[in-house]
Amino acid sequence: MSDAEHDLPHEGPIKTPKQLVWAVVAAFVVPIIAIILLVNYVVAEKMPAAGSTGLAAEAVAARIAPVGHVDIKDASDPSSLKTGAQVYAGQCIACHGSGAAGAPKFGDAAAWAPRIKASYEALLTSALKGKGNMSAQGGGDFSDVEIGRAVVYMANQGGAKFDEPKAAAPVAVEAAPAANAAPAATTDAAPAVAAAVAVAVAAPVAAKADAAPALYAQTCSVCHAAGVAGAPRLGDKAGWAPRITAGIDGLTASAIKGKGAMPPKGGSAASEAEIKAVVAYMVAAAK
User: Fold this and answer.
1) pLDDT (tens digit, 9 = 90+) per residue, 2-51?
2) How far apart are CA 124 and CA 54, in angstroms?
3) CATH homologous superfamily of domain 82-157?
4) Same CATH topology for 82-157 and 183-285?
5) Model confidence pLDDT, tens digit, residues 113-150
6) Which of 44, 112, 163, 170 has its CA 20 to 30 A from that of 284?
7) How far apart are CA 226 and CA 228, in angstroms?
8) For the chain, what are the domain ranges?
């Protein structure tokens, strides 16, 4: 090849100013169009199609529903407690259904025999406190009565004949004397009436106090048990000391409105009275 051929100018695809303008415009417009088409494709995949049930009230409510909720049970109300079969299906089946991690398999009489021989009380204690690879309550959050029912349900399927535990009977409140009773009888019954009124007033307070540990375990323990995100640990006197000075009402107001990393009401749906009860519970543990 001669030197003259090397000296020839090298020409590109763009030879005129008009072609240059079109090239610049295409360099901007084509990527933008590609991005718009991609976004429309992604959005169309996620948005409900016309005529579908994706925009129905039930579907919308399911999409915006809270991640979790607080379920406070009344141990004296049998209708609010789960049966042994329900607890087993919701929690125990993970290991006892297949015999994983050494758990006695559901319905395996040979595996359950030595455990049944140890007595119902021993099985219940192991279920409540945890044993071996099984954590307390199997990692669930049930009342002692519900755990007892699950234990009886599984043990009886393995050959036992345990009686199912009963829920605690509600406290009976003595009725006041009839309005047309004689004056003398009314006077004599005054102490009994006063006692009955005291029981009626104290019952809701006791119920709230009993609910406080459950609410703490279900919601507050996520942060306050280990001191996550600066939350004062349960029972840590030094951590709670500067906060206790605000008083129960001040702490309750902070808990209801949220403070720092803690969302309003700790992310629960508890009432203000329940929040106050659990605040008092944690403050009492730090004194």
Assistant:
1) 555 555 566 677 788 888 889 899 899 999 999 999 988 877 656 555 66
2) 46
3) Cytochrome c-like domain (1.10.760.10)
4) yes
5) 999 888 888 888 888 888 877 877 766 677 888 888 88
6) 170
7) 6
8) 17-65, 82-157, 183-285
Write the burial class of residue 189 (CB in 10 Å: 0-12 exposed, 13-18 middle, 19+ buried). middle
- SS3 for 138-192, per residue? HHCCCCHHHHHHHHHHHHHHCCCCCCCCCCCCCCCCCCCCCCCCCHHHHHHHHHH
With a CB cutoff of 8 Å and minimum separation 6, the contacts of 111 are 99, 104, 105, 158
* Distance in angstroms (rounded) separating the CA atoms of residues 272 and 258: 13
Give the integer Cα–Cα distance in Å for 23 and 32.
Answer: 15
**Digit-coded pLDDT (tens) for 175-226:** 444 444 444 444 454 555 445 444 444 444 444 456 777 877 777 877 787 7
Residue with tokens 């306050």: 224
Phi, psi for residue 136 in degrees, rounded to 5: -55, 130
Cβ–Cβ < 8 Å for 87, 81? no
Q: What is the CATH number of domain 183-285?
A: 1.10.760.10
Q: Residue 175 phi/psi, 5° resolution?
A: -70, 150
